[in-house]
Amino acid sequence: METSTLAPPAVRPAPVPLTAEEVTLIDAYWRAANYLSVGQIYLCDNPLLREPLALAHVKKMLLGHWGTTPGQNFIYTHLNRAIKAHDLNMIYLSGPGHGGPAVVAGTYLEGTYSEVYPNISQDEIGLKRLFTQFSYPGGISSHASPQTPGSIHEGGELGYSLSHAFGAVFDNPELVVACVIGDGEAETGPLATAWHSNKFLNPARDGAVLPILHLNGYKISNPTVLARITPDELDQLLRGYGWTPYYVEGHEPELMHQAMAAVLEEVVANIQQIQYEARENGDLTRPRWPMIVLKSPKGWTGPKEVDGVPNEGTFRSHQVPLAVSASAPPAHLAQLEGWLKSYRPEELFDDEGKLRPEIAALAPQGTHRMGANPNANGGLLLHDLHLPNYADYAVAVPAPGAVEASDTGTVGKFLRDVLRLNAAPRNFRVFGPDETMSNKLEAVFEATNRQWDAAVEVNDEFLAPEGGVLEMLSEHQCEGWLEGYLLTGRHGLFNCYEAFVHIVDSMFNQHAKWLKLTLEIPWRRKIASLNYLLTSTVWRQDHNGFTHQDPGFIDHVINKKASIVRVYLPPDANCLLSVMDHCLRSRHYVNVIVAGKHPAPQWLPMDAARTHCAEGIGLWPWASTDAGQEPDAVLACCGDVPTLEILAAASILREHLPELKIRVVNVVDLLKLERSTEHPHGLSEADYDALFTRDKPVIFAFHGYPWLVHRLTYSRANNQLLHVRGYKEEGTITTAFDMTVLNDMDRFHLAMDVLDRVPQLGNKGAYLKQHLKNKLVEHKRYIEHHGEDMPEIRNWQWKA
Fold first, then answer.
1. Which of 11, 264, 303, 341 has the largest count of CB atoms under 10 Å?
2. Paired residues of 497 in beta bridges
3. Taking residues 357-377, what's their average pLDDT?
């Protein structure tokens, strides 16, 4: 796409009113969009009303949302004019719930829709297909779904539009995102917080977001808060957030067209002046970016009344304002016909059903059309990351467990250099809710700063107008920014405390669904994966206690399609490096990486780690005693602390019962446990049985909730012999080892589990079990007296 050139900040004359001809053409375009929107909700035939409207022309099931649609059509029409007038590079985000008819209508009128769906042609047959498919079995949904060209935001779930908009413009200096925010959507926590994103925008390096608050007064059946506070209170609120609001209010079309055109001229000039001052004169003083408040009736231009009850301008216009069916009042059919004819379709479409050329000329051309802008199909713009050799950051491991290191501290050095290598132009960012330092990724600040455009005081660290790290104490904003960044063709990483990533459960849902659907759309291109690094984990939250202990995000993730989700639990730093490199190279997945941040034993040298991670699961011969024979028991582990405790349990058994044949299996890629028929990473039955056997007890120490492993392995041959230890919702402020004891996942319980399931051990097993029980009593007494774990726990090392 060609980029626009900024004009110098010259004094501009007051906006010239639209000519009568311009108003006529703009109004015609808007009427066409409204006509197409009503047609989508109601019609399956007779798309141009060439014959009297009959019930046979109306869908049997009427689904859709009208209330927000005419206002959005109005906005889209006027943005088209601004794009042409100022050569803007702009995309459109539809935030209000279920505003799909407007975005579909806009992209159809500009021609993009027919280009990506040739069967929805620019003629009467195409119009019939366009109308029929909407909210129809096998068709398209009522919001701006992935099937809609130009969309990077569905609007089905409310609250994320403004966050996505800012994510899209970071490091995207020529892009303007017009973000339409529903006044119902504005009541959500994520959207209310997202107004603060203007404190993180660099006008020299980033693009611009133009929020348009669509103040039409109602939600499904309630008034909206922002519509019922005084105009002065609303203005103070928006200015308090740091915006300069411009107002367009009314219902008379001609006056509204003039007002909207004039405001857009002022707003575009304001944006261009801010960017000129930053880019040409180096003025990075935080600006007050402009925004628009559009106050128009809900269901504008729709039925004024239905059955004698007001409709336009009320909550009753929110969805389908007029019931039309064999069981509805017969007058409704005539009222629908009158409504459709009020847009005068014969003036808008020619004999073939194509938009008349003088009206169509209002739309931009080529990739300047909002539906055809490559930023809304980010895979078209995606470039591979420049990645250093992750092996260069390896921890030297002369023998298993011989050294300790912080896993995330090690990978932080790798991420530091990823930021350096992708800084010009920036193509990679790290996002997090004020936890990058806490999560031991502080090495990234050797390469970059936190981007921050608010005040800076003397003792602040790593704050600057430009930086590759974005932090705000809102998981919603970090997730939304990252999603917008990815959807427009860039790469990133979200680091977060494990327990609190649940805050974005629903946002993850929506993004995973987007990825799944776009895989099925040929013209959509794959984007970079959404990568989570979850740390400060359940097993090392001893000082924060129960509130910070929840490993359940991975349970939630695994509900999504196998074609989309991946979950990794590397046992040490070298494995984390290998996994991180793999995830940053991947496309169109959600990758969840769970890793520890505290110093911990390191198990594998880099070559072994690379091989182990490539396989995703493996037998560790150096920790096993079965020597290629059939084992008496399998000790399996997944996660860093479970690996430590399984190896410690193995060492106890090796010392006291040297004749016992133990096999140790470590899992990095959690979905290896699933059947190969259910997940592309899953093991075949033969491979699974080769590792875990078909008839021997398996004691499995797992990072998360134990029933997740049972869920993944329920159909395996030895499922009845599988005994899983994991987090079972027991926690408090205690020592690190006591956290494992509270959940029966410590080395002593794990060793006893083996003794309970290998009956041939006889008296030897009984004496060892009593010894282990005594150790648990000794542990409890010690921590209560000393406030730390026993020396044999703190100083334990693996011995071959």
1. 264
2. 535
3. 98
